[in-house]
Write a structure and sequence with these properties.
By secondary structure, the protein is of the alpha/beta class. It contains ten helices and eight strands. Strand 2, helix 2 and strand 3 form a beta-alpha-beta unit.
């Protein structure tokens, strides 16, 4: 098993999520439940997925008070990690951190999402970000960490720049992972598992290359082995 591997259970079905979680449990450190699953099943659905610790990836983004209340609301689920959008601003991130602290020793790691891995430079320019992807990731990374985030969500392409800027203490979680021979799909900034870990990622997140495989357990095992 590689504790660095997080398997994304991107489905609205509790039965499917639980089956995937059981299949990949020997090969990963956490499973990730995101917006699709939470919107369909709520807190009860999260409680039902218990094969591995849960990374609750809701990418919260709202006014500070609303985000803080949302963080408080999910603390009873005891997620291992929780995400907020760094672009929500320093006060939003700071209030999320203060809310997370209410869990005491069971506090989830708070991760600031920088730039989604589905976005490239052209997509950023379309929404008014003209400096480039790496510059925006660094800007949001500095903001989130200074406001209290334990780590960041970024693509593997920005890991080295973030390490140089923020040091080894900041946890980096990297989605957009595609093993050789798999299609990128809607991901714009991808790397292989080996490349992402070599770049310095603490955890990699893999979804469809595992869950859409004919044998999800075997797919997870193959990725886990190259991370060991």
């Amino acid at each position: 098993m590689s504790s660095r591997l997080i398997v994304a259970l991107d489905t609205a079905s509790p039965a499917v999520a639980c089956a995937w979680a059981e299949a990949v449990a020997p090969w990963c450190g956490q499973v990730k439940l995101g917006l699709e699953y939470f919107a369909a099943n709520g807190p009860g659905g999260v409680r039902g997925v218990s094969a591995r610790p849960v990374f609750l990836d809701l990418k919260l983004h709202d006014i500070p008070n609303t985000v803080a209340r949302a963080v408080e609301a999910v603390l009873p689920l005891k997620p291992r990690m929780l995400t907020v959008h760094a672009s929500g601003g320093p006060e939003m991130v700071a209030t999320a951190r203060r809310a997370a602290e209410l869990a005491g020793t069971e506090r989830p790691l708070l991760l600031g999402v920088t730039v989604l891995t589905s976005l490239d430079a052209a997509a950023l320019a379309a929404i008014g970000v003209v400096e480039g992807t790496v510059e925006q990731v660094l800007r949001l990374g500095r903001l989130a960490v200074s406001a209290g985030a334990d780590g960041l969500v970024c693509s593997a392409h920005e890991v080295k720049a973030l390490r140089a800027e923020l040091g080894e203490g900041v946890k980096l979680v990297v989605p957009g992972i595609r093993p050789l021979g798999t299609e990128a799909g809607d991901q714009a900034r991808t790397m292989t598992p080996e490349q992402a870990v070599a770049a310095g990622a603490d955890w990699i997140v893999v979804g469809r290359p595992i869950t859409a495989a004919a044998d999800p357990a075997a797919a997870a095992a193959a990725i886990s082995c190259v991370l060991a």
